[in-house]
Each structure stands twice: as structure tokens, then as C-alpha cells.
Amino acid sequence: MKLVATVKPKTFPIRFDRNEWAGAFGDLGTDFPLVVGVTLAANLDSTSVLTMFGLMQILTGLRYRLPMPVQPLKAMAALVITQRLGGPVLYGAGLAIGVIMLSLSLSGFMDWLARAIPKSVVRGIQFGLGLQLAMLALREYMLADGLPGYALAVAGFGLTLILLGNRRYPVALLLVLIGFAYSFTFKIPTSALAQGIGLGLPKVHVPQWSDILAGFLLLALPQIPLSLGNSILATRQLIEDLFPERRVTARQLGLTYALMNVANPFFGGIPTCHGSGGVAGHYTFGARTGGSVIIEGALYMLVGLFFGRGFDVIVKIFPLPILGVILFFEGVALLRLVRDGASSGSEWMIILLVGLLAVGLPYGYLIGMFVGIALAFLMKRGLVTLEDKEL
Questions:
Q1: Of 76, 105, 109, nearest to 220 (Cα)?
Q2: What's the confidence (pLDDT) of residue 192?
Q3: pTM of the full predicted structure?
């Protein structure tokens, strides 16, 4: 009788320790303001938005078992907030981009894209996003709320510098506690929070063809370049950097991105994606497994199901200066990734050029990606040269 040895597939645990709890707040500075801004601007049902956003987090944490949270689609969110587009168009856009990403993933285009685009271009996208997040934190968040806000931002910033990376005393938990204390002292009476308690459920919504077409033209088209660059390629690269033992493909990320957005519109959820900034934020503040993402999702679902009708109070719980501190260090974590290209003058030039174009121009991520790819191709062919000693 022949004995055949079997090898058990390697499993990756999910933990819920204090570092996972700390990491769960690592992307709060990006997520929370965008979720709030879109909900208010498009007059969406807050219970549906928060519950579905939390559910997508939980499912993603269970699927990948990595600190890879779900984020609102940034380009869409910015357009909805600035142009005051309504919920039906937003839901139509979510369904449209979900179908597009599903087609690109199933066709094999995502994996081809990951092979075709040079690493220096992906690093440039990460550099641009990191710069954007850090500038947003300094300009809009950390300087909010006047003198008390300045003091809060300085205290949070100093505390983070001292404790960042400390596994015994995770700094994100301390920042959240300080933020709560500040909010309930200066912003929110406890009675107002209690009045918002009540069970609610997501509302069913069926997108109309006219809204899908309008959403595709107004919101999905501007979002696609950022999604391909950051949500898929930069996220895949960052997972490879931080978790080299894990293999997550562009196709896998594209499929889960697509499925989220095919489901969200029917239950009042906003369009969502993966993102390298979210991975960087969770990892920077201590998370190493999918536990942080599940914790974050459970908190959003809890607020959505039981505090949805008190949304106007909930939005004040996290003070902007504390969100700014978290967002700033999330941006810095992305900026640090470009170090591996600094030794090569040609790669460093591509990284800087792509990043600056992404930040400085409309459709900057699309323009930066094309310019970076073209420049890398010309350098490879010897048509453009740059000696490393010149830098």
C-alpha cells in the first residue's frame, strides 16, 4: 500500500488583540470624513451607508485575512461633495464601475496590467497619494477647531511620535480616547448621543438605467484611473512589500472590488474600493491581520444599526485635529515606500514625476501613469538616459 504525504495549506490567523484594535482606527482620517461628506451631500440614508460600509469591511477582512480595509471611492466622493450629486446617480455609478471592474478582472486585464506597469510608476502613485493625504491632514484637519484644536493636534502629534510602533501601548487607541474626551467636553452633550439610539435596517434600492448611464459618465469615468492605480496596483504592491509571504493578485483585488460595488447600490451603500493608504494606515498603527478590518467593520455596523438616526451627533465624535494626526502618519507611511527607488536616478525621476503629476493635475493619476509608463519605456530602449551620478 502506497502512502501519500499530504501537505496542509498554510492558514493565516485572524487576531483581535490590542494592536489589531489600534490598527482598526488607522484609516479613520480618510474613511470617516468621506463617508460623512458623501452621506450629507447626497442626502443618503445613514443607516444604509454605515451598515453596508461596515459589512464590506468584515467580508474583506474574512476574505484576505490582512489589514486591508475598504475605503470610499475618493474621486467619486469628491465630485459628489463638491457638485451635490444625488444618491440615485451615485448608486448608478457604483453599479457601473462594479460591472466594469468585473469585466476587466475576468478578462485577465488586471494581471496583465500588473505585469506591464513598472514598479517605479506604482511607487509614484503611492508617493502622490501619500503627499496628498499628508497635505490634506495639515491643511484641512489639524488646523481646525481654533486654539483648542491646535493644542489637540500638537498633543496628538507628539504622542504619536513617541509611541508609534509601540506594540505594548498602541498609540491609535490613546488618540481615539483623547478625541472622545475632547468631543464630549467641548462638542457633544451625552444626552444628545442617547437620544439617537434606535434600531434601523438598510433600505433596498434598485438603480435605474438612466442613473447608471449618468453615474458612469459623471462619476465612474473619473474614478477608473485612480482605482486601477491605487486600489489595485498600489495595494497589490504594498501587500507584497509588507507581507512577502502572502500572494494577492491584481485579479483577486479587482474581483472583490467589483463584487462590493455590484452589491452596494441595491442596499443603499456607497461605492467602495481597496486602497494602499488604508493598508498603510492599519499597518502603521499596529495591525497585522484581518482582525483590524473586522473590528472597524463591526464598529461601523454597530453605529449604523443602532445609532443611524443620531447621525448628526455621531459625526462630531471624532474631532478633526485627531483625524488629521492619523491621516498625516498614514500619508507618511506611503511616502516612506519610495526609498527603494532612491538609489537609481532613473527610477527616482519617474517616481517624483508621477507623484507630482498625480497631485497637481486634474485626472493626475491617469496622466501620471501614462507619462511614467512612456518614460520608463523610453529609458529601457535607451532613447532617454539619466546617469545615476547626476543625482
A1: 76
A2: 63
A3: 0.86
